[in-house]
Amino acid sequence: MPILLRGIEGIQAYAGFNLGKSGWVEISQEMINAFASTTDDWDWLCVDEERAKRGPFGRTVAQSYLIVGMVVPMLQDVYLLEGIGHGLHHGIDRLRFPTPVPVDSCIRLDVTLKSAETDGEGLNLVLDCTMECDATQGPVLQADILYRVSQSSCDPVCPAVAG
Fold it and tell me: How far apart are CA 9 and CA 5, in angstroms?
């Protein structure tokens, strides 16, 4: 169940704290193929199951940017914002993919609110995100995800982020 962060002050109160982990999400070959079709990213390591069996990982692996694309829905599994305006994705700092994600494995996201600072117009959030995989040792993604949240009020409960 996601944690509920209320208002600017409520968000800031969690700065420096771990917000939790998302649920596990399976990365299937169908998902990898759909991503390849959408983005025209046909790397054989990702989509050619027979050739990948003879490759460095012994099976196909997910495209790195498919894994990045999973961050937004996984963040919504970790927290919700209440009593604030809209939140917009602002950028990504220090994005790394230390280990590939094998097909048919599961990933989840661990999120720490690194900082939450106002600048007069809104709130700038930095989320320290580490993604783990049940089939690997060590993280498969590490990044600081940057969001900008307006101070004006919106719906009673806003989604965690907007893509």
Answer: 9
The number of beta carbons lying within 10 Å of the beta carbon of residue 37 is 11
By the 10 Å C-beta count (0-12 exposed, 13-18 middle, 19+ buried), 87 is classed as buried
Q: What is the pLDDT of residue 157?
A: 47
pTM above 0.85, yes or no: yes
- If we measure between CA atoms, which residue out of 71, 73, 109, 82 comes closest to residue 14? 82
CATH number where 154 lies: 3.10.129.10
Q: Does any domain span residue 12?
A: yes
Nearest to 26 by CA among 62, 58, 52, 1: 62
